[in-house]
Amino acid sequence: MRQLLRGESAVWALLVCLSTAMAAVSFGYGITKEGGQVGPGFLPLVSGVALALLSAACLLQSVRGGAPQEEGADPRRIRTLWTVFALLLAALLLVPLTGFLVAFGLLVFAVSAFVEKQRLLPAAGVAVAATLVIYAVFVLFLAVPLPGGLLGVGGDG
After folding, report:
1. Concatenated DSSP letters for 59-125?
2. Contact yes or no for 13/63 (Cβ under 8 A)
3. Could you give phi then psi for residue 38, rounded to 5 degrees?
4. pLDDT digit string, tens, across residues 49-87
5. Closest by alpha carbon to 112, among 100, 125, 102?
6. Crossing angle of helices 120-134/100-110, nearest 10°?
7. Rounded to an integer, what is the distance from CA 68 to the centroid of its chain?
8. Which helix (H) or strand (E) is 42 found in, with range?
9. 3-state class of 126 per DSSP?
10. What is the C-alpha separation between 105 and 110, in angstroms, rounded?
């Protein structure tokens, strides 16, 4: 049990560091544009700060020994968390090549199909729907340019 909590704490600490870095890097993209419009760095800033705060709370709980209901915690939870973390890292590394939308869609598909164990067709449907929603909200509605990568997909400006 002790080793499980140490592994969980390490994951939460890593997420705190990465989300804090994400929030810090967001300033380089511009939080707002001229006229007070939402800039490309706004979403990474808000999500980075929120993820850092939530991860820090979970880290604190993990360091303190976890909640009582975690006494019989399953090691599969930690493996699932590491798997999602690895998939997120892979998606981030794909962005310069495929663009944000393709990388995001692949991430949603992989999590749905391989982590959540959904059938491939429904997982693909969820990935396409989520990608279309992100495109509609950020590119069409907010006019926030998303990285298009080498493929040029996503409205890079």
Report:
1. HHHHHTT--GGGTT--HHHHHHHHHHHHHHHHHHHHHHHH-HHHHHHHHHHHIIIIIS---HHHHHH
2. no
3. -65, 130
4. 888 888 888 888 888 865 544 455 577 887 888 888 888
5. 125
6. 150
7. 28
8. helix 42-63
9. helix
10. 9
Distance between CA 105 and CA 112 in Å, rounded? 11
> What would the two tokens of residue 107 be?
């991430």
| Phi, psi for 71 (deg, rounded to 5) | -55, -40
DSSP secondary structure code for residue 131 in this structure: H
Bridge partners of 38? 32
* 157 and 127 Cβ atoms separated by less than 8 Å: no
Condensed to tens digits (0 to 9), the pLDDT of residues 99-115 reads 889 999 999 999 999 98
| Packed helices 75-98 and 2-26: angle between N→C axes, nearest 10 degrees | 20
- C-alpha Rg value of the chain to the nearest Å: 18
Q: Enter the pTM of the model.
A: 0.60
